């Protein structure tokens, strides 16, 4: 992990960058400019979702960037209301059209919900078989969701995108995914800025001449977590990417992991039932 384009080989053999841009709740010109800035800096992974309402702008910025399609990794997600076999296939067509892409690199089930995700997964498997997506995965799945999904499917999710940061490291889930060759990806890896005043992180940041955010992101990489920090500020987008020129000691990695308090800032997947 020495460069912004360094990648993890997923369980189906394709490469996914360890680092990318998140676009949660960014819309219009704001998200278009953020994606353009990120691609100019060297980002090659962009994460969006149908529910974010910005797939069209993301796609337009990708098209205008001049970056070769085969060097990009684009993720989007099927939203809860579209879960089910036929509805997922239709939702995928809508997302593809908005993004202006012939294929999606990674297509995820956004939330497990109660009982539709198996039918949704069958739709993702079809899209994968047809070559419309290069990899399929899930988001916000707990261990019991993964076990239930894999009980009736021979396709192991390539990725599980979940809330993960130093205050919520999800060790049991991370270990389970590692055991089953499912790549963990962190949304809200910076805990939405709520760790800026942490003394341990400040001390480590000062040692390396880095920011607290950069230390957290580096901690994520060294724990083999794919990270997609969201920002719409050009300077912050650049700052977030400047994490490949230093390395935390193992003691420092362990110390940051020791901040874990089981503290969610997002919704508990087991309480989001639909």
Automatic annotation (TrEMBL):
Kindly list the residues the record flags as site (Lowers pKa of active site Tyr): 77
Q: Which Pfam families match?
A: Aldo_ket_red (PF00248)
Query: Can you tell me which family this protein belongs to?
Result: Belongs to the aldo/keto reductase family.
Q: Which organism is it from?
A: Paenibacillus monticola
Recorded protein name is: Aldo/keto reductase
Zinc found in the keyword field: no
UniProt-annotated catalytic positions: 52 (proton donor)
Q: Kindly give the PROSITE patterns that the UniProt entry links to this protein.
A: ALDOKETO_REDUCTASE_1, ALDOKETO_REDUCTASE_2, ALDOKETO_REDUCTASE_3
| Residues involved in substrate binding | 110
């Amino acid at each position: 992990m020495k460069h912004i384009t360094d990648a993890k080989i997923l369980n189906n053999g394709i490469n996914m960058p360890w680092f990318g841009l998140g676009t949660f709740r960014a819309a219009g010109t704001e998200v278009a400019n953020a994606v353009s800035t990120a691609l100019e800096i060297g980002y090659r992974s962009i994460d969006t979702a149908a529910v974010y309402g910005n797939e069209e702008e993301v796609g337009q910025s990708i098209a205008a960037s001049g970056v070769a399609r085969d060097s990009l990794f684009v993720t989007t997600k099927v939203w809860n209301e579209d879960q089910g076999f036929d509805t997922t296939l239709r939702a995928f067509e809508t997302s593809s059209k908005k993004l202006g892409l012939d294929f999606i690199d990674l297509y995820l089930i956004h939330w497990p919900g109660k009982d539709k995700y198996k039918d949704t997964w069958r739709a993702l498997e079809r899209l994968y078989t047809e070559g419309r997506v290069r990899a399929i995965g899930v988001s916000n799945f707990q261990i019991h969701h993964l076990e239930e999904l894999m009980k009736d499917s021979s396709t192991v999710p390539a990725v599980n995108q979940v809330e993960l940061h130093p205050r919520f490291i999800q060790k049991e889930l991370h270990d389970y995914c590692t055991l089953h060759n499912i790549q963990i990806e962190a949304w809200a890896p910076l805990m939405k800025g709520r760790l800026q005043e942490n003394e341990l992180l400040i001390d480590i940041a000062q040692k390396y001449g880095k920011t607290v955010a950069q230390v957290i992101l580096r901690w994520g990489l060294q724990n083999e977590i794919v990270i997609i920090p969201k920002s719409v500020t050009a300077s912050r987008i650049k700052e977030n990417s400047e994490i490949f020129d230093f390395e935390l000691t193992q003691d420092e990695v362990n110390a940051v992991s020791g901040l874990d308090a089981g503290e969610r800032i997002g919704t508990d997947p087991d309480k989001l039932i639909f």
